[in-house]
Amino acid sequence: MKYFRKIIRYALPYKKYAWLNIIANVFYALFGTLAMVSLFPMLSVLFDNTKRLKTEPVWTGIADAKDYFENYLNFFVTQRADEGPGQVLFFMVLLVIGMFLLKNLFGYLAMYFITYLRNGVLKDLRNELYRKTVALPVSFYSEKRKGDTIARITSDVLEIQHSFLSILELIVREPLTILFAIIAMLLISVKLTLFVFIFIPISGLIISRIGKSLKKKSDRVQREQGYFLSILEETLGGLKIIKGFNAEGIFNRKFQQSTTRFYKYSNSLVNRQNLASPTSEFLGIVVIAVILWYGGHMVLVENSLQPELFIVYMGLAYQILTPAKAISKASYGVKKGNAAAERVLEILETEASIQDAPNAIEKASFNEAVILDNISFKYEDEYVLKDFSLSVPKGHTVALVGQSGSGKSTIANLVTRFYDVNRGTIRIDGTDIKEISQRSLRSLLGLVTQDSILFNDTIKENLLVAKENATDLEIEDALKVANAWEFVKALPLGIDTNIGDSGNKLSGGQKQRLSIARAVLKNPPIMILDEATSALDTESERLVQDALENMMKNRTSIVIAHRLSTIQNADTIVVLSKGTIVEQGRHSELLAKEGVYHNLVAMQSLA
Question: What is this structure's pTM?
């Protein structure tokens, strides 16, 4: 239950529905018991066991409540006897119908109010999970499977939602139904009720033993579901590769192995859960059999209990079975929900490794330089950058070149603060970026990545990610700068054309030009281009390169380049190898040295 105590705060905005549900459940339990008790007067009339009382009984206290109500009933029947037994019976039938009607009315109201609470908690939990998912740093998802996160937001939250209903039944509706029934049973016969309750702790002990391992089994099922959702997500993302390499069999096997494990775990869980209902029902019938034996002895041998009261008593005893079964099932639901809550809270309570400083400043402009001062960084054990220093003055274009794995893209990740440096500092205008709020830092930066990251939406909505209130004219201008307007205006709906999942309705060059247009629309003072032209064909590269050169005029740019022909006009070219600078200078200067850069250019020229 410790996880539910943390989840319960999400129910606080809907507490009025919780109170209304509790009130409705109180009346449901009350009228459920009264509905059974109301059978007694009808049975008394049918068996003609009603005593004739001409004098209205007087209330003498709670101790004599049973005798008072029985005598008042006899008095009422005696008053109506002159009108004929049919009239009395008709009234008694109406009384029974009225009690059952009120019971079911309040039962519906209880479910009506709990619906708003359950769905409200579901909505708020998912919203909070999504907010946290977006807020957590990029590094968090390099260690987690995406499918597992999806499973937590979908099925785990849904499991919590259902468990909320079970808890309210557990603590209000069913216990009250049992309590009211027991009170009525005690009023009918204290002796018989005490005899019956010798067997109840034994039943409870057996049922609790069944559910002992349920949380562990449920957790195993939910983790496996997250795993096969990850396989599905990766399959959809890499369908071209899977088909291109005829790897359908490999992924089919991986998915089937996961679903087979899920099948086994689910069978074990559901079979254990399904055992609750027949076990509790059988134990309940055993209790009923004991009542029949002992109560029948009181009626037939001792003559200490009226037959009609014994029939009502049997009805009340059987009425306890339904809520008892519901409680056992609800307790299993709570165990399953507890496992789901643990997985959900694991994300909600994860502390982001990259956070704003307590007094982080809001920086609105860029005036001097971006300085990387003696920084070192590692993703796991080995350092990717070692004691790296670089100055990027305002208005300058600095290009980073080198072989794959030399640390070029890592620098882009550190400047944007997707990761934090292990040693050293990165400063903008002399201020450590850790002292600048992440939101204002990233508002100064424009980012174009090697992979064109686009969303399944229109061209317009993809660009509005950069500037939410941009006009259609501003979008058109940004597309022109990126040399994308010619192909966009030829599309059936222009900027309102949907580009499909990850922009797959467009060519690689078209997708990259839209990514560049998005950065242009943002119009930031610092631009980071992470191999922005590597995915383009020769013609597209020439178009985009012209656009990039226009965009970078009077702007500070950090360009990570694979194709060296695209950075010949950079103010400074930095050549990296294994996380350190091996050469630095302008294009002509580096060629004259005939060093690493010269060799890289020569290799690309030959290619």
Answer: 0.72
For residues 227 and 145, what is the distance between their CA atoms, to the nearest angstrom?
8
Are residues 106 and 179 both part of a single domain? yes
Return phi, psi of residue 353, to 5°: -70, -20
Task: Say if CB 130 and CB 153 are below 8 A apart.
Answer: yes
Strands 556-560 and 397-402, by their bridges, are: parallel
Based on the fold, state whether residues 24 and 99 are members of the same structural domain.
yes
Tokens of 577: 């190898």
Residues 72 and 176 in one domain: yes
Q: Are residues 49 and 188 in the same domain?
A: yes
The count of structural domains within the chain is 2
Q: Is residue 456 part of a domain?
A: yes
C-beta of residue 392 within 8 angstroms of C-beta of residue 370:
yes
Domain for residue 237, yes or no? Answer: no
Question: What's the CA gap between 397 and 408, in Å, rounded?
Answer: 15
Which of the four pLDDT bands, split at 50, 70 and 90, describes residue 277? low
The verdict on residue 187 lying in a domain is yes
- Please give the Cα distance from 572 to 560 (Å, whole number): 12
Residue 585 lies in a domain: yes
DSSP for 545-594 reads: HHHHHHHHTTSEEEEE-SSGGGGTT-SEEEEEETTEEEEEE-HHHHHHHT
- pLDDT, tens digit (0-9, with 9 covering 90-100), for 221-243: 777 877 777 777 777 766 766 77
Q: Are residues 201 and 69 in the same domain?
A: yes
Identify whether residues 463 and 336 lie together within a single domain: no
End-to-end CA distance of the chain: 65
The predicted-structure confidence for 66-120, as pLDDT tens digits, reads as follows 566 666 666 665 555 555 556 666 777 777 788 889 999 998 999 899 888 888 8
∠ at Cα 238 (235, 240), nearest 5°? 115
pLDDT in tens, 132-160: 888 888 777 776 777 778 888 888 888 88
Cα 558 → chain centroid: 38
- How open is the CA angle 423-428-433, to the nearest 5 degrees? 50
Residue 573 C-beta-side C-alpha neighbours within 13 Å: 26
How many CA atoms, within 13 angstroms, populate the side-chain half-sphere of residue 413? 19
Mean pLDDT of the chain: 80
3-class DSSP state of 350: coil
The tokens for 376 are 């070192």
Range of the domain at 551: 369-606
The lowest-confidence range among 21-25, 90-94, 471-475 is: 90-94
Q: What would the two tokens of residue 186 be? A: 């005690």
Distances (CA, A) of 85 to 53, 343, 566, 602: 16, 64, 105, 114
